[in-house]
Structures are given as C-alpha cells and as structure tokens.
Model the fold of this input.
Amino acid sequence: MTATPDLAHAPTVATPELFRSVFRRHAAGVAVITAAGERPVGFTATSLTSVAAEPPLISFGIGTSSSSWPVLSGAAYVGVHILGEHQQDLAATFARSGADRFGPSTDWSSGPEGVPLLADVSAWLVCRVVSRVPAGDHRIVIAEAVAGSPSGAGRPLVYHQGRFTALRD
Done:
C-alpha cells in the first residue's frame, strides 16, 4: 500500500505564507554568496544547488529587493562559501538587513577575480556568472566554478525551521 499525504486537513491555497511554512520544514545547507563592487556585497543563501559537473555549474536565488542585488546583477564573478556549524554568527550577519557584513568582525580577503573570500569556511568556490534567469521577485543565478577549495574543517551549518543548526548523529 502506498502512503499518501495526510489529507484530513483541508489543503490551503498556495499563498506566500504557506510556501514559506512548507519550506521551513526543508533542511538546507547554508552558504554565503559574495561579489565585488564599489564595496563588497554578500548574503546568506539556502538555495544553493549543484547543477552540473561537466561543466561545473551551481545555481542560487537572490531577491531583486536584496541590498546585494544591484552589485550581483552586473557581477561577472561571485564567491560561494559553504559554512560550517561554527559559523552561525557569520550566517546571521550576512542574513541581517543593514548589517555591516564586511566590517571588522568579518575575516575576509580578495581572492581570484577580485571576489571577496571569507576565512575559515568549510569550502569555497569562485564562479563566473553565465546566466541570470527571472523567477518572480527573484533571479536564479547560474555560474560556472573556476577555482575553489574543499579543505575547510568542520561539519556543515544547516538551516531548518527558521534557524541555523547543526547536523545530529
């Protein structure tokens, strides 16, 4: 017998609130996306996905109302940083509107193609943007990895039920 979703509760019309509620139940890895502009920009992303291995493509979503979008909309390269469980504060800083994301508390340097690279992350990539696809009030950015390192230590940071957390064994 095949299990079906619990239909005892009447389905709700798919509003933005319902959509957010459903995706709060979806655990996602946490990344920070950065780009160089007059000043560096960056934001926390849980929408990062591996698209293809040949060529090595990734994608992520960004809201067009994001303070990072004006720079990301024209950036040729982006930095992709996979955060470790020890970086909840960093994830929160890059998620908070109006935060000084590249202030004194953020350890970073300029990497390949001038992309801002964060220190002490689990892994990072520098990617060349190949496409920006309109998707509602967001854009889906597709980018090809050109450099990177998986050598950081630690377990991954996860976002679930509206908060940052760690994996449990």
